[in-house]
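Pipeline run #58 for the internal structure catalog. This entry was flagged by the ingest filter as a single-chain record with no existing model, so it goes straight to prediction. Upstream metadata was stripped on purpose; only the residue string is passed forward. Reviewer on rotation: M.T. Logging verbosity set to normal.
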Amino acid sequence: MSSYLRAGLAAFLCSITVCLTAPAARAASAALWIADAGNLRIDEYLPVELKSGHTPIPLTIKLGAFPWGVCFDTSHNLWVTDDNEEILEFKASDLKKLPQNISPAVTITSTSTFSDIVGCTFDSHGNLWVVDLDNNSLDEISAKQLKAGTGDITPAITITDTAEMSSAHPAFLTFDQAGNLWTDGRDDDKLFKFSASQLKSGGNKTAAVVLGAGGSLSDPGQIGFDGHGNLWVTSYGTDTVVMFPKGHVKTSNDDPPAVTISSSTLVGPWCLRFRGGHLWVLDYDDGNAQEFLPSQIKSSGSPAPKILLTGAAAPDSWGMTFGPAFGVLE
């Protein structure tokens, strides 16, 4: 991890977090949700706010701790990880009340396990997966445990990889279309895949695929997949977003990316999500969110974003996803 990023995180909170991710909403009607850590809140930008040329106004959920990961379950409930080592659930029925103040319906902790839980995402069975950065592990909180509600739990499954990830400090995770789980190696500039079969039980595993990326990554961030199955990832240290073709991520290799986006507006790119084939990126350094059209990311270049939301979040914010639009701007 770069000294700049490490220093910034230490000064910011003395612990850390994704962003990740549940499958991103693709419809044009989806709202943009950001874990706005600098402002201790979750920001929701309704679809009408997702345009350039004006100052976007969010609906907000106020929190008492720094939020990190944000993701939705299939019932449209919002789940948030925070720096209190908590997993918070906000019910869809409460989200409809925005901009009224709302509180989490469920708070899950794991005093025996969690140490800097950050990114989050759901699998196809309704289990919630989180990244435990300090422990270099991936934890599953089962659908049964989530249904039980507030409590101090032991994750149903914990996966480590002492061979490849012992000091990688992953922060994000996402599933591909085949149910394989991908995560980043923040401190060794690699990407890791654990196969669906490896996720059936906990323990020390050897990643099924390791992508070295030919030395092109520096502090890799959030991983995402486009509609063609190509893998995209942010590279904080190089101010770029890169793509590895679907056919090049099936086995371990050190191939460089096929596409590199290096727009001048990318300043510490951190999170990425796809919305209707359009690529959205959240910057860590300036809190800007920006959209690139499919035609702009077919090949390497420095395109100007179609939409630039200046100051969508405070600098140093981590989590971003697309999800249902709730509430009404007053």
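catalog note: Residues 1-26 have pLDDT under 50 and may be disordered.
catalog note: The CA atoms of residues 177 and 229 lie 7 Å apart.
status: ready for reviewer M.T.
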